[in-house]
Amino acid sequence: MSDEREKLEIEAAKLVTALENEDFEGFRSMFLEQHPYDQAKIFVKLEQEERTKLYHYLSPEEMAALFENIEDEEYNYEMYLSEMDPRFASQMLEHMYADDAVDVLNELNKDQVASYLTIMDDEAAQEIRELLHYEEFTAGSIMTTEFIAIIANQTVKSAMHILKHEAPDAETIYYLYVIDEDKHLVGVISLRDLIVSDDDLMIGEIMSERVFSVSVGEDQEDVARKMRDYNFLALPVVDFQNHLLGIITVDDIVDVIDEEASDDYSKLAAVSDVDSIDRGPLSAAKKRLPWLVILLFLGMLTANLIGQFEETLDKVAILAVFIPLIAGMAGNTGTQALAVAVRRIAMGDLEEGGNLKIIAREAGTGIINGAVCGFLVIGVVYFWKHDFFLGLLVGISILATLTVATIAGAFVPLVMHRLKVDPAVASGPFITTINDIISILIYFGMATLFMQYLI
Amino acid sequence: MSDEREKLEIEAAKLVTALENEDFEGFRSMFLEQHPYDQAKIFVKLEQEERTKLYHYLSPEEMAALFENIEDEEYNYEMYLSEMDPRFASQMLEHMYADDAVDVLNELNKDQVASYLTIMDDEAAQEIRELLHYEEFTAGSIMTTEFIAIIANQTVKSAMHILKHEAPDAETIYYLYVIDEDKHLVGVISLRDLIVSDDDLMIGEIMSERVFSVSVGEDQEDVARKMRDYNFLALPVVDFQNHLLGIITVDDIVDVIDEEASDDYSKLAAVSDVDSIDRGPLSAAKKRLPWLVILLFLGMLTANLIGQFEETLDKVAILAVFIPLIAGMAGNTGTQALAVAVRRIAMGDLEEGGNLKIIAREAGTGIINGAVCGFLVIGVVYFWKHDFFLGLLVGISILATLTVATIAGAFVPLVMHRLKVDPAVASGPFITTINDIISILIYFGMATLFMQYLI
């Protein structure tokens, strides 16, 4: 990797020099040889003055290819657009795939969007306006309208002719969607099947009528799952009357899968967004501090709870020794059960047996784990402190705590899922606190009850 | 989702009935209408008797399409293969894409592999043998050899002719790779470009000579990253002399991204594999218990450490109240810093400044977070316990603990990365224990030092 990065940096340095020397030809020949993804990587590192020159050196179409490849984390679309001549900017947006243009426009305020759409070509503006309506995280919000639709009543040869004509503008040409006169989706044919078919065959004869499609309001995670399971390169998007509205291509789905996974991961780690780049300690602190403050106050609750048992603690100070062990084990088992439940929900893998079955299984798991750990603890404490009752107390606490904490870890996300709240939100603070409280109540409750055996 | 699942279950019931009634025609017409992914879903739920019938009802080629779609988690390849007639099984393996066949064979022992390869067509056996050599998790292990390679010195028309001929067997037809007489990779042309080009143009004129490729030993995560960043549908795989060996298609990469993400997630949650399906409490316990036992013994270390301060605790029992708060906050900040570092390493996003810069930034983040949380604690404890010195002790402990824990959270995965150990392994037990120990040493150390202000 580092070799490639080095090479890119050398190229970038050369390009900056070309910009500084106003070497139009030299810059263009070097820059356009780069893949648009690398162009974007270089672009975001330029100074404003250099960027302004670049806008004059590239065509709107070339700029569009670059702009499509700016990564989400680095976006500063508004700033870049404001640096461009408005006409250049809207021509660039016109040349972008509609779904990518919509991503950019979603970062601007309404007035800015309206002004770019006004100076844009009417047809492109209309397409973008329609896409802007769809809610975030739905199929509609990630689909594009640059697909190839054909009618069934024509030959392979004539379909190939249409394909040749439309290929330069379509986001994918590897599936052709077949529609009837009312734009209902009635079939699909892959380019592979088209190519191996005889020129004179009719599309209606060779198309597949069993078309997989997603509905425009469907959650993007569900779309991603379908695409992954069935290995499609694109999926058509339809409304409730089966009108073909757009397509979703596999590259967008790769991004969705990536985002969703790191979203779950971020929440488990209690960081607002693990993947955004930190510019310095302040921006990193801003991302983590809100969680820490919540956790701090929840921790105070736990401290307060222990405070209730101060009398017990005063008499048997050694009890304090095992607090982190018991609370820690409760936190660990809870996190395990939670992570399994969250992933299962995210992957749509909830078994038929329903939630009760899951809870029952988690209870079983908790008892097994609790029993094993409990016995180990009794043994270790006995040999270490030569105090059988203390060992018994800690061991039974571990058994009870692990059982309850495991159930809680699975129960909370399932309930949140039922309540249509993203279960991953529960990961950090909730489970840890609930389990801290449970473990301390069990441990000190038992210690207070059986005090006479401990002193 | 549940509608679709219901539909699939109804279909499955009908198919089982057809199998039971030995309705050959009815079964085939219904079954082959299903997408191979759904066929696989139905297949894995059948009883052995039904499966045996199914092997007789389907051709090796039809069975191959189904077999390619059995999900990793559900695999029981060995059992299925042993139920088939050996000749049928090896014909099926022949019809599978080579990379998928290799996945299946990797689950068998050497003798079994050898016996299937012996009865297989020589050419197919040779291809599979070569792929079996590559190490797991490398580009070689996920590539396939069913690609289309052409020479530069021919017209578009003749390339299209080759394409039509080879399309049915190739895993992707959307990129044609151009090689010289020694099989060196010299160019690439997308089907899109081929289709819009005039028939009489030469491939050498229109191909792109700037081919992105990956080396056969490259890590599959690096390959996935490239494919995601550059939005390729396939990438060619070459050896160190730039000979074209195979291709990797986007569907395999989607699986890699998915696996890697859930692998990191599993390790953060200290579960061996969050995504494998639990059949019952015992299998779930088996996945989690090893981690819990490790954590238990590490927890004992912490308990032992607190035990060293028993004298201090005896005098000031209230100190125990804040143990879970301080240890918990250390654990939380450590997990945050760790999660950020692990993801950054996984995404190849390590900044140029190097590790020192990251550590310095984390130290800054830790101090900011520690200062904010520390001041909050001083205030809360003062109002709650009316004890300024206790508040000061807890507050300063939080400041010191958070700073050190944040640094540790980033430092450990960076060191592991340097030592070529997967940094995600550190997630669970390590960081938590290190931070427990750090926080207790700081808290009780200070309490013991400043004892006179507390009593």
Automatic annotation (TrEMBL), chains A, B:
Annotated transmembrane regions: 289-306, 318-342, 363-384, 390-416, 437-454
SMART domains (UniProt xref): CBS, MgtE_N
Keywords: CBS domain, Cell membrane, Magnesium, Membrane, Metal-binding, Transmembrane, Transmembrane helix, Transport
Gene3D superfamilies for the chain: CBS-domain, MgtE N-terminal domain-like, SLC41 divalent cation transporters, integral membrane domain
GO MF, one example: magnesium ion transmembrane transporter activity
GO cellular component, one term: plasma membrane
Entry's localization field: Cell membrane; Membrane
Domain CBS residues, every copy: 143-206, 207-265
Subcellular location, principal: membrane
Entry membrane topology: Multi-pass membrane protein
Function: Acts as a magnesium transporter.
Protein family membership: Belongs to the SLC41A transporter family.
Summary of subunit composition and partner proteins: Homodimer.
Protein name (record): Magnesium transporter MgtE
Organismal lineage: Bacteria, Bacillati, Bacillota, Bacilli, Bacillales
Gene name, Swiss-Prot/TrEMBL: mgtE
